[in-house]
Structure formats: C-alpha cells, structure tokens
Amino acid sequence: FESADVVATGSTWEDNAPLLTSYQNLWADNADAVSVAYSGTGALKTDFTRTGKRTRLGAFNDFLNSASRYYQNNWTDGPRQDSYDLFLGGFRPHTASIKSPFPDRRPVYIQLIPMIICAALTVLGATIFFPKDRFTSSKNLLYFAGASIVLALSTKFMFKNGIQFVNWPKLVDVGFLVVHQTHDKEQQFKGLKYAQSPKFSKPDPLKRD
C-alpha cells in the first residue's frame, strides 16, 4: 500500500478509514459470494466483518440465513450437489448405468407423508379461519381434532425417519448412506430406504479399547 501511495509512509492501512471500509466490505462481499455457492445463502456474521461490531439486524439476518440453510440442505440440496458432481467430472454419464437415477424410488407411503402434512395443515387453517358455522361447532371441532392428530402423527413419523425425507444427491454415492431395497410379502419391490452406514456411526463415548 505504501509503494502504491495508497497510505502514507510509516502509517498502517487500518488507520485509513475509507480504505478500511472498502476492504471490509470487499471481504464481506467475497464471503457472501463463496457462501452462496456452497450453502445457498450469504455468509454469517458479515455485519461484524463490515462494521467491526455485531448488530441486531445482523443477528436477525443470520437467523434467516440459518433457517434457509436448514431448509435447503435437507430438501433442495440434492440437485445442486448433482450439478457439482457432473460439472467436476465426479459423475460420467457414459460410464454409468443407462437407467435414470432421478425417479423417486422410495416407498409410496414415504412419498405421501409430506402431502399428508400439507393436507392436514390446510384443513387446520380452514377450520380456524374459515369455519362453516362457528369454530366451536361439533363438526368443525371434529375436523380440527382429526387434522391435528394426523398432523402430529405424520410429523412424528417424519422426524423419526428424517433420513428418508432428505433430498440426497442421486449421481454419486455420498459414502455415509446405505441404500436398501424393500419388498412386500410376495417379494415384490416396494422401494428404496436409506440407512446410515455403520462406517460413519457415532462412536460410543463409554466404549473403551
């Protein structure tokens, strides 16, 4: 910076307020660009990078970014990882099977759970905001109770079997998953189910060698 006459000889660039502001914003913008590529949102704590202090607005933006990352990482991240694998050569179509990997081959009941939850939420909203008579009418309460039970059971099932609902990449094996084929009593194929590979199981903290 001194040789380029950006700062005076003997001074530090941190003492140059305009330069420091430009550098901090450039650093934060770079962090946002890199973060969007791998996480789908801007970087966290960029308010501190830009201003040197944390702000309430920055903390709120971090909350929104974290919530967005959770949603994207679980339900929309598979195609993005597939695009990386295809672009970087991790997956080569001419060496893979001619059978398409993209159709959803999970059991039908697994595929139906999200739609059941959406339907239950719709019924709950209708009974609360658009009751046919009044909210406390027996018919309305019956629909409300039924939708609540369906929603609770479906949500419990989804959280208990969360690994089945993640949008996993389909082109390249992620390594920590094992895919099992399920069959009915007549040995007819029902669908694919995911399980965590024993190679990547969490170690038992009480176990001693």
From TrEMBL:
Q: Which UniProt keywords apply?
A: Membrane, Transmembrane, Transmembrane helix
Q: Which domain of life is it from?
A: Eukaryota
| An annotated GO cellular component | endoplasmic reticulum
Give TM segment ranges. Answer: 108-129, 141-159
The biological processes this protein is annotated with in GO are:
phosphatidylinositol dephosphorylation
GO molecular function per UniProt: phosphatidylinositol-4-phosphate phosphatase activity
KW rRNA processing (keyword) present = no
Record has Nucleotide-binding as a keyword: no
Name it.
YKL212Wp-like protein
The scientific name of the source species is Saccharomyces cerevisiae (strain AWRI1631) (Baker's yeast)
